[in-house]
Design brief:
Layout: H1 3-18, E1 49-55, E2 58-69, E3 72-73, E4 80-82, E5 85-96, E6 99-105, H2 113-125, H3 139-149, H4 161-166
Antiparallel strand pairs: 1-6, 2-5, 3-4
Length: 176
């Protein structure tokens, strides 16, 4: 291969290697179920079932250093003759109170073993459930359901109607 051609191919390969790749598409944010929450008891409606739960209070622990004695300085030189002393104080404070919440859920007659098995398969497909699709609403299923709903704004292990729709387990109602 002639030298100029080889040099040109090397330069082309070098330029191609330096070209930045297009950015990867960002994953869509997890949908939120917070819009499904009501802070008031709903009015009874034919064919509508609701779950009631208490959203726990949020408490944070605050740790502070509090000065017990200030430093002392030599008046003539300004040098520190005694260091300040501090103590650590820790307290808990309520960030938000507990709140009763209501949300639509499936009615008991809809929670059949076949439906629960479908729920287990849907949660397993998302890496949240590791058991067999037994159709039993066992503790592993309840934990997986809570792990699915909590990051979406519904801190509950009770299946919300919106979650069942989002998982493709029931049809979406179309507005009339």
């Amino acid at each position: 291969m002639p030298r100029p051609l080889a040099a040109a191919l090397c330069a082309l390969a070098l330029v191609a290697a330096c070209t930045p790749e297009p950015p990867l598409p960002q994953a869509a944010p997890a949908p939120t179920l917070a819009g499904e929450i009501s802070l008031r008891a709903p009015r009874p409606a034919e064919g509508a079932c609701w779950a009631h739960q208490i959203r726990p209070a949020v408490i944070e622990t605050v740790t502070e250093q509090v000065q017990v004695r200030p430093e002392q300085r030599d008046p003539s030189t300004g040098a520190v003759t005694r260091a300040a002393s501090f103590r650590t104080e820790t307290r808990q404070q309520i960030v938000s109170d507990q709140i009763p919440i209501w949300f639509r859920t499936l009615c008991d007659e809809q929670m059949t073993p076949d439906f629960i098995a479908s729920l287990q398969r849907a949660l397993r497909a998302r890496g949240l459930y590791r058991g067999l699709a037994s159709g039993d609403l066992d503790s592993a299923t309840i934990r997986a359901l809570g792990a699915y709903q909590t990051p979406r704004g519904l801190p509950s292990a009770t299946l919300a109607l919106a979650t069942a729709r989002e998982l493709g387990l029931i049809a979406w109602e179309t507005p009339r």
